[in-house]
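If you are new to this repository, start here. Below is one unmodified record pulled from the training split, so you can see the exact layout before writing a loader.
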Amino acid sequence: MSRIKEVMVALEAQGKKALIPYITGGDPRPNWTVELMHTLVQAGADIIELGVPFSDPMADGPVIQLACERALEHNTSLDDIFLMVKAFRETDQKTPVVLMGYLNPLEIKGYECFAKEAAESGADGALIVDLPPEEACSLVPFLKENNLDSVFLIAPTTTDDRVKFICDQSSGYVYYVSVKGVTGSATLNVDEVAEKVTEIKAHNQIPVCVGFGINNAESAAKVSKVGDGVIVGSVIVNLIAKNKDDKVAMNREIKALVSSMRIAMDA
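And here is the target side for that same chain:
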């Protein structure tokens, strides 16, 4: 059983939902990332999505685009991300880490090499935004060989047949994009999310975690009532940008935000 599945099973037994924050590795500085990962766990995170910075993050809005730019100013590479996960694992063997990013760095590294090095670093899964499951047959076998979960995206416009196919190809959880648009989109209709999550679960019992448009404790609590997990990115990355020159303030404000979401979700 993968570390992600262990966490999801344990949460279900407790009647809780997963809180999954996203940060971009290397933002605002590479040597701040590991401490921030620990801050997220202390605040109540169950799984961390760690972004691999890329120069053309096409599915992301300006907030995460700028996060990638800040990380790339320090030449943060895929190898650096592996080192961050490895350092995180020195004191945290429990919290799953999903590497989230784009295909180009994996193409350069090579799929087999990526999967092997990701597993050796202590990562637990990969979500490659611009790699649809129909084209992932060259990567997924290497992920499976290394006990890494494959997380794929489902959109509001995804057809019923394709939802089934995506669920069948996924492991760990599927990421339901709750709104049409890029990351940072503000409009969120929880009733529509609930309807779509029910449709997804009719095909497969894989956990459905919901992201996009969740930016405070109230929205996190509402979404946690209809999904198996809540994925939060842009609002956290905004706090990183706000405090990019003050590590103490950055960790303090992010811890307060994530803690408030954890409390609201559990309530």
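Two things worth knowing about this chain: Residues 3-266 form a domain with the TIM Barrel fold (CATH 3.20.20.70). The radius of gyration is 17 Å.
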